[in-house]
């Protein structure tokens, strides 16, 4: 039997409507929209990046973490079998030193303290404590969740795991000591990625977007959204470039180095009003 075309169209429309309803119900149950939806309509100040300069960045580096300490720019890179901890010259982007992770580990966020370096892994269930002088691994400690971004404030580490929570950890033992939910206009904000601690705030990349958010602690509320989409270049050098991921504050906390996974450039920027 041949089904009339109008009935086929009606059936297809019903399936689309049901699928859309399903998405809406899932979002309602989770209490959260997609990050892009929430950030576009946020009532907090919206900022943009003002580019002050740029330096080359290794286009093979799958950047997961970036932090400036003692005149050295530390970069953690990802991908199993390719992950490294790297030391760069922040003025030129030149590689000073690099050490690989074991082939089975996928590097993620990094933070540098005077007496140790902590480097996360993604889904491998461990964090690495390293010697700042040699970059050698001193020990592996258990990590009970995914590792995404990492930074530190006086007396504690701040970590992200892809959810809407930032966790706090003891800087010596890596033990979990607390957490906070991150919200923007009352909505949970998920997929917080690379982190940079500046005073009582945390700047965070939001995965799958070109946005960076400023999170106030201790309440976890987003107090600004930065549109960094203007940094992406065009042409053959950018053909393999992936998402924005890498925030390193310069002394004073007013200027930042930004880059992304496999980006050929790293940018010195300020965050200014749109």
Note down, in words, how this protein is organized.
The protein is mainly beta and 274 residues long. It is built from 2 helices and 22 strands. The strands form 5 sheets. It has an 8-stranded mixed beta sheet. A 4-stranded antiparallel beta sheet has the order 2-3-4-5, with no helix packed on it. Mean pLDDT is 89; it is low at 1-33.
Low-pLDDT parts are 1-33
Shape, per Cα inertia axes: globular
Estimate percent helicity.
Answer: 10-25%
Q: What gap, in angstroms, lies between the N and C termini?
A: 61 Å
- Count, helices: 2
Counting DSSP E segments of at least 2 residues, the number of strands comes to 22
In percent, how much strand structure appears in the residues? over 45%
The spatial strand order of the largest sheet comes to 16-17-18-19-1-22-21-20
Structural class: mainly beta
Quick check: average pLDDT? 89
Radius of gyration, rounded?
20 Å
H/E series: HHEEEEEEEEEEEEEEEEEEEEEE
The largest β sheet comes out as: 8 strands, mixed
* Subunit arrangement of the protein: single chain
Keywords for this entry:
eight-stranded mixed sheet; 22 strands; single chain; 12% helix; disordered N terminus; 274 residues; mainly beta; four-stranded antiparallel sheet
């Amino acid at each position: 039997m041949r089904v009339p075309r109008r009935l086929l169209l009606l059936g297809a429309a019903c399936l689309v409507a049901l699928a859309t309803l399903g998405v809406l119900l899932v979002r309602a149950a989770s209490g959260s929209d997609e990050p892009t939806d929430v950030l576009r309509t946020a009532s907090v100040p919206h900022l943009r990046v003002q580019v002050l300069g740029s330096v080359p960045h290794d286009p093979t580096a799958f950047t997961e973490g970036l932090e400036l300490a003692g005149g050295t720019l530390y970069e953690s890179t990802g991908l199993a079998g390719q992950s490294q901890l790297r030391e760069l010259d922040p003025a030129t982007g030149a590689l000073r030193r690099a050490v690989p992770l074991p082939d089975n580990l996928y590097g993620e966020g990094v933070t540098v303290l005077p007496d140790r370096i902590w480097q996360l892994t993604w889904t491998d269930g461990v964090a690495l404590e390293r010697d700042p002088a040699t970059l050698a691994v001193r020990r592996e400690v258990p990590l009970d969740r995914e590792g995404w971004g990492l930074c530190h404030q006086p007396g504690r580490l701040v970590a992200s795991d892809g959810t809407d929570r930032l966790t706090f950890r003891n800087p010596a033992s890596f033990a979990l000591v607390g957490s906070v939910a991150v919200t923007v206009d009352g909505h949970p904000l998920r997929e917080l990625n690379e982190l940079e601690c500046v005073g009582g705030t945390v700047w965070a990349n939001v995965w799958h977007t070109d946005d960076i958010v400023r999170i106030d602690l201790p309440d976890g509320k987003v107090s600004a959204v930065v549109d960094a989409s203007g940094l992406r270049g065009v042409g053959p050098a950018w053909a393999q470039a992936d998402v924005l991921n890498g925030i390193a504050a310069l002394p004073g906390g007013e200027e930042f180095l930004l880059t992304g996974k496999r980006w050929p450039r790293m940018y010195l920027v300020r965050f200014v009003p749109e």
